[in-house]
Amino acid sequence: MNLIITCARHLEIETKQELIRILEKIGDPKPSIMITSMSGILTAETILEPMSTVKKMREMLLDEPWCVRYCLRVIPIQKVTETKIEDIEKGVLDLIKFISDSESYRISIEKRNSNISSQELISRIANKVNNKVSLEFPDKIILIEILGSTTGISIVEKTGILSVEKTKRSISE
């Protein structure tokens, strides 16, 4: 998986079809999209680079707001690991090179179907990252998306996650 997509509950099939159409349009002829056991959550495996996919989808949305009806958020994933504190910590350390020394960061964790300790995870990662923390206006976000026994990790800027609703709202302002 290199994308996580959220949608309204019970609209997973429509979201999957919409996502296939969008990914084909931006360059992946055969994306693999899975409807997870969690309501409103899909994962995708695409040959496209996840960060640029989110960027292209945002541009597409700004040009044609009506082309996205079911996807709510599209989250790029750079690394996938098992949902174990040690594995997640190692995964974050593998990606830490995407934060330069002068940049601040925040750790954001979204947990679904897991009882792993967010507090322990945050403190273990924070102890290994020497950069300044900024909860309000971070330069980068260490994103940890826990989906049961699988965890997706990314280091993104604030605009690195596509929120369809916020993007559509920005058009009307």
What key phrases describe this protein's structure?
single chain; 173 residues; alpha+beta; Alpha-Beta Plaits; VC0802-like; 2 domains; five-stranded antiparallel beta sheet; four-stranded mixed beta sheet; 34% helix; 28% strand; globular
List the secondary-structure elements in sequence, H or E.
EHEEHEEHEHEEEH
Low-pLDDT ranges: none
Alpha-beta content class: alpha+beta
CATH architecture field of the largest domain: 2-Layer Sandwich
CATH C-level class of the largest domain is Alpha Beta
> The CATH topology of the largest domain is what?
Alpha-Beta Plaits
Number of domains: 2
The oligomeric state is single chain
Spatial ordering of strands, largest sheet: 2-3-1-4-9
| Average predicted local confidence, pLDDT | 95
Q: Name the helicity range.
A: 25-40%
Radius of gyration: 16 Å
Determine the N-to-C terminus distance. Answer: 34 Å
* Approximate shape: globular
Question: What's the total number of strands?
Answer: 9
Strand composition percent:
25-35%
Biggest beta sheet summary:
5 strands, antiparallel
Total helical segments: 5
Structure description:
- This protein is an alpha+beta fold and 173 residues long.
- The chain has two domains: 3-77 and 161-172, Alpha-Beta Plaits, CATH 3.30.70; 79-156, VC0802-like (2-Layer Sandwich), CATH 3.30.2130.30.
- Helix content is 34%, strand content 28%.
- The chain has helices spanning 12-25, 50-63, 85-95, 118-128, 164-172; strands spanning 3-7, 32-35, 41-45, 71-76, 79-82, 105-112, 140-147, 150-156, 162-163.
- The strands form two sheets. A five-stranded antiparallel sheet has the order 2-3-1-4-9.
- A hairpin with a 2-residue loop joins strand 7 (140-147) and strand 8.
- Helix 3 (85-95) runs parallel beside helix 4 (118-128).
- The longest helix has 14 residues, at 12-25.
- The protein is globular and about 45 Å long.
- The model has no long low-confidence stretch (mean pLDDT 95).
